[in-house]
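Input set for joint prediction.
Command: fold jointly, output tokens.
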Amino acid sequence: MPASSMTDGAPRTRIPGVPSGQRRHVAVMVLVIALLLLGSQAPVYRVSQLTAVFIFALAIMGLNLVAGYGGMLSLGHSAILGVGGYTTAILINDARLTPLSTIPVAVVLGVLAGALIGLPASRVKGIYLALVTLAFAVSFPEFLKRFDGLTGGAGGLIVRSRDLVPPPWSGFTRAERGEWMYWLAAAALLLGFALVRSLTSSRRGLAIRALRDHEVAAVACGVSAARDRVTLFAISGGITAGAGALYAMYLGALSPESSFTVFTSIQLITGLIIGGVATSLGPVIGGFAVVFIPAVTTELTNGQAYGLVFGVILAAVVFLMPSGIAGWLNGLPKALSVHRHRGTKHDPERHDGG
Amino acid sequence: MTLLVERLADGLTNGFVYALMALALVVVFRASSTVNFAQAEMALFTTYLAWWMTTKGASIWLALIAACIVGFIIGAVTERTLIRPMEKRGEMPTLLMLVALFTALNSIDGLIWGLDYHSMDGLFPGGIDDYISVAGARLYFEAIGVWVAAIVLLAVVFAAINKTRLGLRMRAAADNPTSAALSGINVGRIYTIGWGGAAVLGSIAGILIAPISAQQLSLATMFPVLIYGSAAAIIGGLNSLGGAVIGGLSLGLAESLLTGYVDLIGPQMHQTTALAVMVIVLLFRPTGLFGSRLEERV
Amino acid sequence: MSTLEVHGMSAGYGRAAVIHDIDLRVDPGQVVVILGANGAGKTTTMRALSGEVPVSGSITFGGRSIANLRPDQIARLGIRAVPQGRGTLTSLTVRENLLVGASCRADSEVEADIARWMDAFPALARRADQPAGTLSGGEQQMLALARALLGRPQLLLCDEPSLGLAPVIVRDLFSFLSTVNAETGTSLLLVEQNANLALNLASFVYLLEVGYIVESGPTSDFVNSDAIRRAYLGM
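tokens >
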């Protein structure tokens, strides 16, 4: 199913030509570019960390489509990330393609992988779907080891750094690969952001949210549950696989056990929950969380602690801040200005009507 | 023939362990309508605890009892503090809590006991000569011990659920919580006991499998058992106790025979095979082979 | 035996109260009926009393406050509810359903009680070892009643026991309730739309209208009051 079917002819909710809105758009863009320029001036290792943030944010953005807007918990996104990463690495190494040209292929395969994982979503929901997606996450490393001729098996793949140099037209030199990756990841993240924004504000996006919140009613109104769920998984797969492609280019080395196990899925989920499910900024905040929580905890302890820290933070956020940081920020202006209505705001994160 | 018997025996040994894990998952599902992703990690923690006690000179049987008690407490406390508050908020927050517990427990094990593989003494004699020969195949006492232990345990569990007052209350609370409560049953306490009991089952499964596992005792020992256990539970029907046992045993046997005899699958694709069967069952018979229709709890 | 006393009880779902400021009283051995049209709040009243809905106001039973206790705590204090929809434990056998009703009792007379109610409902005795889900609607209503009675309640709450049953079965059911009341001294609080039958059984009546008690009094006042019969009972 083509990804475009979700956007076809769907009117944007934002009405063009409203000056205040446009001015805000421009202001936000200027701010974003300023922040990115600021970030690019940071020390080399910080730039590299920020690049990782952007890549994980993009991966979480894909997950957010399914888990946030679609209300379907996927534990399988580590496999999709892996599909993107391995596609890029294999194409660079074996087909001698340039890194950039592998991205569309990775995205297309990601769409297919997403649709495959999402296919069961047309039949099962909730914990059953979580188990099915878990199956994909667990199987992916086994597949990598089984087909080790292609994937390097348990040892993984290495992409030589001379195959990862920035393209000449970019103006970046070979030594500036770090900055090149920074800007590439930032551009991909902005692209993903715009795509998700336009999807979720489209009529189809509303239908999908209706499906999450009130399935019976939504289906009665002509929303096709099965088709929309698979489509959502497919688009989500494309985005996350794109992140995987960038990840391969960023790291230059892939191995099944280090990057593409269930724990990666759990990291992505934790990032999403911390950032805020079904919010557009949530994945970006989540990207920061995923990169900086391990970095900070490794400095503090021997490195084993970060699973514990992830677990504790995940549980705490689900308990105390169910709409995540972005959701909390969104609610802040209201909470500050409308004191009278305190307590009337009810839990925005509801599932299945309980 | 010899190879066949050995493969069958292997399959049976694993199958019994999967059956115990599947049974634990079903007990939890019947209480809280969720799959306890952390079930195996709870078991791993108590198995480490038992191993640690044996290194301090305690007998393995004493360690087993301690592991069961600690397991019960972990399960009960989890239900009471993490799961019940999520009851009204639906399945997703509950699952997230369990995912959080999963990663936290595994990490705690690593922090306390490190990343090394430990060889653990079993409950049964595990010497190189401790076997009987059947059709030329060697059936080790370790394996036979696992079968016997699992059969006894399963018999106890089924008797407890079907013949005791507590079992009746558990079945009532699983069948119709409102009605059970109106009959004076403290449904919440029953769920807490169910989670505790499930963790005891898991602990025993852990102590049975760790001495004979290829992973020995390590951070990766129990995760595959969760995968097989949940596949077995789904195949049997998530709310069917009997189905869990049949699912576990058939999965153990199928794993051993398929990966032994079918080349394409080979030694790397064990879990994928089990999961593929699970996905197929879910897609074509979502209630499993023995489960009853699952009503969404309101 | 204990008296149920309710003062100023309000209850509902979420924010909106469905019943407001209800006062009612059931004395030991008494049969009381709450009459009202659909949506008057009868079921909410029952669920509030059995602990299934949070309430405000005061509810005492035998002098002890039971407002906002859990359903199982209220049940153990001697109030048993026969819920609308019967609450059958479908995967358990008929006999096990009855045992669930007695699951809080420690005395040795459970078997005797089971035999007694099975005598009263031969249909249950015939199918004692079959899954309760296979019973007919009427049989499930009998089972729900027998399950509640196995708790040896002092007060039985029955929410529309006649709902969905054939008239002949409803007559049996009400005569059974009358026998139970006479033989065991169990007080009954009934909610009914079928006013005729209920008025024959009850000695005191409350009329519930859109969440408020609008009228109450001994049954004789109502039987003789054509105006009220017409206005509230549609007869």
